[in-house]
């Protein structure tokens, strides 16, 4: 029953995403940037500082390229890059238990990183708020997956929600916090001007 509900909600959310993409098409320049972003994110993902036994851990800021892309190029580009990045992560020996868990851990948890540009990029505080939103949503999805699908790995007697929170906040949450700090320091105005030059590919 839980699997069916997750799959149904996932299909609804993916439908909204596809409608959004149809109404706000990504141009050729952004498609190229999405591809580059996914490649960089995946390379950084392959450099783990801490790797947890059931998946996850702390990598070399692999979340950051997707979040920066969302901030500079908009939500559609960020969500698309997050989607592709999640699919690429499957090639690194992912633990897939069923389709619903796959959707949570390898589709929506990474797509959520594309929400970093939700509040715009014209003010630093808006960028930070967007990054926090993206990380909170991403980690929350992973926590849900942990509670529903990885409870058997929790120490005996430990509450499943507490276990999943500790597992995911200490990995993706910590990395997300570091990424937010780094993005907050970056000269995003300069990056934005460089990315949005009309003659960038001419």
From TrEMBL:
Q: Where are the transmembrane segments?
A: 6-24, 31-50, 56-72, 102-120, 127-150, 165-188
Cellular component (GO) terms are: plasma membrane
User: Has the keyword Transmembrane been applied to this entry?
Assistant: yes
Q: Which UniProt keywords apply?
A: Membrane, Transmembrane, Transmembrane helix
Q: Name one GO molecular function term.
A: thiamine transmembrane transporter activity
The family database entries (Pfam families) matched by this protein are listed as:
Thia_YuaJ
Gene3D superfamilies tied to this protein: 1.10.1760.20
Tell me if Repeat is a UniProt keyword of this record. Answer: no
Provide the protein name: Thiamine transporter
Originating organism? Clostridium gasigenes
What is the name of the gene encoding this protein?
Answer: thiT
């Amino acid at each position: 029953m839980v699997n069916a509900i997750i799959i149904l909600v996932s299909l609804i959310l993916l439908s909204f995403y596809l409608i959004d993409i149809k109404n706000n098409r990504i141009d050729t320049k952004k498609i190229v940037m999405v591809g580059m972003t996914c490649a960089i994110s995946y390379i950084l993902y392959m450099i783990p500082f801490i790797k947890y036994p059931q998946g996850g851990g702390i990598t070399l800021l692999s979340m950051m390229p997707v979040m920066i892309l969302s901030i500079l190029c908009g939500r559609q580009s960020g969500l698309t890059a997050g989607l592709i990045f999640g699919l690429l992560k499957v090639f690194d020996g992912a633990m897939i238990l069923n389709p619903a868990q796959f959707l949570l851990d390898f589709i929506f948890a990474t797509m959520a990183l594309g929400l970093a540009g939700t509040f715009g990029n014209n003010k630093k505080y808006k960028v930070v708020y967007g990054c926090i939103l993206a990380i909170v949503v991403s980690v929350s999805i992973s926590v849900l997956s942990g509670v529903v699908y990885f409870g058997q790995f929790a120490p005996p007697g430990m509450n499943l929600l507490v276990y999943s929170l500790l597992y995911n906040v200490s990995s993706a949450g910590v990395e997300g916090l570091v990424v937010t700090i780094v993005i907050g320091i970056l000269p995003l105005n300069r990056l934005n001007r460089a990315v949005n030059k009309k003659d960038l590919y001419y």
